[in-house]
Amino acid sequence: MASPKILAFAGSLRRDSFNKKLARVAADAARAAGGDVTLIDLKDLPMPIYDGDLEAAEGIPPNARKLKDLMKAHQGLLISTPEYNSSIPGVLKNAIDWASRQEKGEPPLACFDGKIAALLSASPGALGGLRSLLTVRAILSNIRVLVIPEQLALSKADAAFDAEGKLVDAKQKATVEKIAARLVTVVTKLSSPA
User: Topology of domain 5-191, per CATH?
Assistant: First the structure.
């Protein structure tokens, strides 16, 4: 049986983003657990702010279509997001909004419906971005994504990674590995023929 395909990305554009580092760690852990992981950077897929008039005039922007195609080609999503003002970053919400748009001949929510997701966050703050996880979980659940219960809000992220971008704390590393393995297991079980 083929390895479950997981699309991993961070909800951040910043080059040295803690969440990009955490997404990389989680992607490696998912690979180690048997997943076929594609790690992308939303900075490589710039999109305009969602605008219904723009969509009506020009259709879905090319990079939004690329993201949709990537999501359709993967069964699982591994997302690490920062917390901005007690919620999710605009770039992540915008990517979700564009990807959710239905194109001709496509069922509603084609790149979300039936996907399985795991969520992580990292922040220098004490809560580790926890409030953003609540919002992302609510959004994804409402657009037909099954979000696994295991998650990590990594606090003090400014001191959590070494010079190579690896997690310093063994317990935090084990937690990421557990979440990634759980995602791979759930995707495998739910993608297997009955």
Answer: Rossmann fold (3.40.50)
